[in-house]
Each structure stands twice: as C-alpha cells, then as structure tokens.
Amino acid sequence: MIKRITVFLAVLLMVAVAFTASAQSKVLLQYAPSAGTTTTYKMNITGNTTVTAYGKNQRTSLETGMRIQQKVTGVDKDGNVDIETTVLDGTITVNNVPTVLPNMGQIINVKMAKDGEVLSSTGVDQQGNMNQMQIRFPKNPVGIGDSWTSKIEANPQMPIPMETKYTIVGFEKIGGQDCVKISSTVRSVQPAAGSINLNVSATGFIWFAHKAGYMAKNEVKSDMRMVMENDLGGGQKEKIETRMNLVLKMDLTK
C-alpha cells in the first residue's frame, strides 16, 4: 500500500510544483531570488484511496504533512540559480496511523535556469524528475488571460506522458509579496501501455512572487486512477484498480 501511495504522491508533486484580479501590465516570469534567500514551505496532502481487487473494495484515508526548506546557495553570471532543498520533517498518516517520512533530512541540489529549466541536479535518481517538478516559464512577458503549455514525456519513474496548461488569472499579495496567480490544468495525454495503466487529472493555482522570483503558494486537487495486472500464474491475471483523490496545499511558513 505504501508503495502504491508513493507513486501517486510523486505524480501529485510533479503537477504540483499550479481570484482577486486587478489591472496590471504584463510581467516576465523568472526564478531570480538573490543568493542567500531562504524559504520554508509547509506542505499538507489529504485524501483517500479506494482499491478494488478480487471482487472487494478497500478504502484508505491518507494525510501527509511536511516542511521543506529551499536555500539559494549561488547565482552565476547568466542568472542560473543553485538551490539546496531539504526535507526538514514530516509524517505520513494512513488510516490514522502516523509514520515518519523515510526521506526526512534528504538534501537535493539543483542548478536551474531563470525560466525553470533544470540544468543539473544531485540527490535524486533522475534529473528528469526535477524537470517534471518545475514550472517552465515562457520567454516573453505575460498578462491576465495569457496561456502556455508544458509536456512531460513518459519515463521509467512515470510511465505516462502528461500535458499541463498554465493561464494567468490575476495578481494579488501573498505574505506581503506581489504575486501573479496562475491556474494549472494537468491531463494524461494517453493511458500508459503495459501492465500499469495510470490516468491523471489535476487542477490548481500557483502564486508566484514575480518580483522576488520564487513560488509563494500552491494548491492542487487531483484525481488519479491506476490499473495493474497481477499475474496469478497458469495464464490467469487479475486487475487491481486503485483510485486516489488528493488535495495539496503548500504555503510559506517560518
């Protein structure tokens, strides 16, 4: 069960890293925090899963809470940013039984271009994972109503291609920072082939502090369906269907 939940959390984090509108000119969105900038986020994920197998349904409640700290350790002459991310603490609670997160204390180092492209990373198995978790901003300034899309190709960790559409919906202040509010919509481009079929849909909002150059807030609601085939031997196979509905909220904290 924990392994299955981990797959879904990975999807949510990818999509997750996604209206009080007022008139404002277009802005150029870039990751541009100054060296030494440290931000700490509180992340909370709540939801439930339903597993259908062998003619039975099993429902499981899920809650994950964690604190993540990001520190800018350097900015080069081209504006590329070196970021150190640390999981400070956290728990995952399944059916009211809490467990300490296994990756607590993990440190991930990323070098990222101003538009969000991940140039290199350490502390993760695949650089592609980090690219999937970052928003890639357009090269030109954007304003209310402007949209752009980003596609995530299938890979060993996530065996489905996904497409995300971002749209500027407004501007507001979060924690004293001037933020652009971005809606995000994620859809599976096609079901995965093979023994695992994973369909994903998610909608949410991202508040990006465009003057300070970092994310201030993120909210995502997701629905996921995974079908796996279990080989029973003798040419017999049994389909196991897992459905998960999750709500993610991520805010700046001290």
Write the SSE topology:
Elements: H1 2-16, E1 38-53, E2 56-75, E3 81-94, E4 97-100, E5 107-112, E6 118-122, H2 127-133, E7 147-152, E8 162-174, E9 177-188, E10 196-209, E11 214-233, E12 236-253
Helix pairs in contact: 1-2
Would you summarize the structure shown here?
With 254 residues, this protein is mostly beta strands.
Describe this structure in words.
The longest helix is centred in the N-terminal third of the chain and has 15 residues, at about 1-15. The protein is mainly beta and about 250 residues long. Helix 1 crosses helix 2 (about 125-135). Residues about 15-25 and about 125-130 have low confidence and may be disordered. Strands 1, 2, 3, 4, 5, 6, 7, 8, 9, 10, 11 and 12 form a twelve-stranded antiparallel beta sheet that branches. It has helices at about 1-15, 125-135; strands at about 40-55, 55-75, 80-95, 95-100, 105-110, 120, 145-150, 160-175, 175-190, 195-210, 215-235, 235-254. Strand 1 and strand 2 (about 55-75) form a beta hairpin.
> Which regions contain 5 or more consecutive residues with pLDDT less than 50?
14-23, 126-131
- Strand residue content: over 45%
Major sheet size, sense and barrel closure: 12 strands, antiparallel
Q: How many structural domains can be distinguished in the coordinates?
A: 1
Q: Indicate the mean pLDDT.
A: 83
The CATH class turns out to be Mainly Beta
Helix content: under 10%
User: Count the strands?
Assistant: 12
Spell the H/E element sequence. HEEEEEEHEEEEEE
User: Which architecture would the CATH scheme give at its second level?
Assistant: Roll
| Cα-atom radius of gyration | 19 Å
Gap between N and C termini, in Å?
Answer: 33 Å
* CATH fold label: Lipovitellin-phosvitin complex, beta-sheet shell regions
The secondary structure category is mainly beta
Overall body shape: globular
Number of helices: 2
